């Protein structure tokens, strides 16, 4: 989000944005400026440039100390060893994104209407030339002009940047709200006819966009063609159903060059704020149809030792401890009647023994607040104390066949007295 890792020429380095170099903590009660104003007083904050490979070397050489079980390289060590550098950036920026060739680092201005583009080569040269001033903690602050390649005025509220296969970059503009397309420079800039480092066009989006995703846009070989604008607000885009308005994903056609971007589809999203997302080619997905073996535990990605096997379904009692071994297959549970005593400690081992694609079953005992979903081959163990006597129906809670409604049984808990 506010950090990105280098790639190709800049691999082994990471870049991150910061704000509040003022070290403001708010405190209007005692006459201090409110936090958001206090944190925005200076014209510049710092992009962090971190030599991750070097940090890993220092860790291996035993230079880290343990603080609450975390291995930490001290500020003194990373300054001395050249792990951390700062570069001034327009104050309170938002995302930082590395271009597909790894040669440039793009900072989206947020409060500043520009994207600021830093050259990795220039950063390396500035470090080699020791062209820096230390900040109050001794961290080298590299000379801004020696590191910057270009600044482009893209519009109001630039937040995040993505890349395509035509040598274009795309920056979300939260306040306008729109997505700006601009031309990269360097090798990538030769892929389009626009002058390097210039604004090419904009497409309005509905409405305030945060993140954007171009197909494979974070990789060294972006796919282009489509961009998804993840808008935080939809306002008037859909029929109102109450105070809560959905977020809105918009599909943008970016296949043509120049100022030609077009919104082609709206999709309301009801679950949480859309954040970082990746679009990858479907043929890169190699999913399983069913788990590799029956008895699979998806959390450990291995077969459970104590899973319920087909043909070996049973109920075992050892004092007050009861182990139930149950299988699920269309459209019944085995066993169907499970009888225990009030106060028994239950371990209920359940296996969906299906080997058919999408043959998911559920196991619900609403009276005991139990509901699990088991994909084909999956096994789970549920542990609880049968502390309420009664007759509790259990049933399948994932639609599985025409006899789904009949896929049920009874859990009988005999009263202690
Ligand atoms: Cu079922």
Key traits:
mainly beta; Methylamine Dehydrogenase, Chain H; Immunoglobulin-like; 5-stranded mixed β-sheet; 4-stranded antiparallel β-sheet; binds copper (II) ion
Description:
Keywords: Copper, Metal-binding, Oxidoreductase, Periplasm. GO terms for molecular function: copper ion binding; cytochrome-c oxidase activity; oxidoreductase activity. This is Nitrous-oxide reductase. Its EC number is 1.7.99.6. Its main location: periplasm. The protein is mainly β. It folds into three domains: 1-95 and 118-153, no CATH class; 154-286, YVTN repeat-like/Quinoprotein amine dehydrogenase (Methylamine Dehydrogenase, Chain H); 296-414, Immunoglobulin-like (Sandwich), CATH 2.60.40. The protein is 9% helix and 41% strand. The chain is built from six helices and 32 strands. It has helices spanning 35-38, 52-60, 75-80, 120-128, 144-147, 186-189; strands spanning 3-5, 13-16, 44-51, 65-67, 70-72, 84-90, 96-98, 104-108, 114-119, 132-134, 140-142, 148-153, 158-163, 168-173, 178-183, 199-204, 209-214, 226-231, 247-253, 262-269, 296-297, 302-303, 314-318, 321-329, 332-334, 337-341, 345-352, 361-365, 370-374, 379-385, 390-395, 408-414. Strands 23, 24, 25, 27 and 30 form a five-stranded mixed sheet that branches. Strands 1-2-3-6 form a four-stranded antiparallel sheet. The longest helix is centred in the N-terminal third of the chain and has 9 residues, at 52-60. It is elongated and about 80 Å long. The chain starts with a strand and ends with a strand. The model has no long low-confidence stretch (mean pLDDT 95). Bound molecules: copper (II) ion. Copper (II) ion binds at residues 331, 361, 396, 398, 400, 404, 407.
């Amino acid at each position: 989000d506010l950090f990105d890792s280098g790639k190709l020429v800049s691999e082994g380095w990471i870049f991150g944005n910061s704000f509040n170099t003022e070290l403001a903590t708010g405190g209007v009660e005692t006459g201090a400026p409110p936090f958001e104003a206090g944190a925005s007083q200076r014209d510049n904050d710092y992009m962090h440039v971190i030599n991750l490979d070097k940090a890993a070397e220092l860790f291996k050489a035993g230079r880290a100390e343990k603080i609450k079980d975390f291995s930490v390289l001290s500020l003194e060590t990373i300054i001395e060893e050249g792990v951390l550098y700062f570069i001034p950036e327009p104050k309170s920026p938002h995302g930082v994104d590395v271009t597909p060739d790894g040669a440039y680092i793009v900072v989206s201005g947020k409060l500043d209407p520009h994207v600021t583009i830093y050259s990795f080569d220039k950063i390396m040269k500035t470090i080699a030339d020791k062209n820096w001033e230390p900040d109050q903690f001794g961290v080298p602050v590299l000379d801004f002009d020696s590191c910057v390649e270009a600044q482009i005025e893209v519009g109001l509220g630039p937040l995040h940047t993505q890349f395509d296969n035509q040598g274009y970059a795309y920056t979300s503009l939260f306040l306008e709200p729109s997505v700006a397309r601009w031309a990269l420079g360097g090798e990538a800039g030769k892929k389009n006819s626009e002058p390097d480092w210039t604004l090419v066009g904009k497409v309005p989006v509905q409405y305030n966009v945060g993140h954007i995703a171009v197909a494979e846009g974070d990789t060294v070989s972006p796919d282009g063609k489509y961009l998804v604008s993840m808008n935080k607000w939809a306002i008037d885009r859909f029929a109102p159903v109450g105070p809560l308005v959905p977020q809105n994903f918009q599909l943008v056609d970016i296949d043509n060059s120049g100022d030609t971007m077009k919104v082609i589809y709206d999709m309301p999203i009801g679950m949480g704020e859309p954040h970082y997302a990746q679009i990858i080619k479907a043929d890169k997905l190699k999913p399983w149809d069913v788990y590799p073996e029956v008895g699979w535990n998806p959390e450990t990605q291995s077969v459970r030792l104590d899973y319920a096997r087909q043909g070996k379904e049973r109920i075992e009692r050892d004092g007050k401890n009861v182990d139930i071994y149950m299988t699920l297959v269309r459209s019944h549970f085995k066993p169907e009647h499970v009888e225990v005593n009030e106060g028994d400690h239950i371990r209920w081992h359940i296996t969906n023994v299906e080997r058919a694609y999408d043959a998911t079953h559920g196991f619900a005992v609403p009276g005991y607040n139990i509901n699990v979903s088991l994909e084909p081959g999956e096994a789970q163990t549920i542990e609880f104390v049968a502390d309420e006597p009664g007759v509790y129906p259990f049933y399948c809670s994932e639609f599985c066949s025409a006899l789904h409604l009949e896929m049920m049984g009874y859990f009988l808990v005999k009263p202690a007295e």
